Amino acid sequence: MEESSQKSRSILKKALSLGRAFSVCGVLLIAAEWSSANGADTGTASNGEMTAEEAIQLGEEFGIAVGEVDEEIQKELKLQRPEGVAVFEVIGNSRADYAGIKVRSVIKEIDKKEVRTLIDFGKAVKASLKECNFTVGTYEPADPGDPVGWGVNFHFVGCKRD
Predict the structure, then answer these.
(1) pLDDT, tens digit, for every residue of 81-106?
(2) What homologous superfamily does CATH list for 2-157?
(3) Domain boundaries defined on the chain
(4) Beta strands in the chain (DSSP E)
């Protein structure tokens, strides 16, 4: 498991550093395994609480493949703290895609609810997906050559399109 976890981290690091999108299935499996390796509960909770696996599935329903920001991702993205949820892929023609959420973004807020962990993300996105309109606050890398660096961006997520 440890060797597999190391491979997953290596793939995720490459995906983030290169800004490439990988197949949804591969990224979701890696994200689930990575979250599990980092201590997140990926099993089904018998008490009705949110699990990392459910949060990842809700992310896919929204249109993104996500994983929790750990210290390695924090260093890679030059963040102050290992908080938030990193976006590894945006699924085309999804609500997330239409809202303009980008690969390498770090989700910090959904509809005014702070997102520090994958579980926070799952709870917030589950409540928000029931609504027609909500907002997602992200930190996003600036254009290459932009000396300012990262910026905060708020994305308006509208009703589902057919």
Answers:
(1) 899 999 999 999 999 999 999 999 99
(2) PDZ domain (2.30.42.10)
(3) 2-157
(4) 64-68, 85-90, 106-110, 113-114, 134-140, 151-157
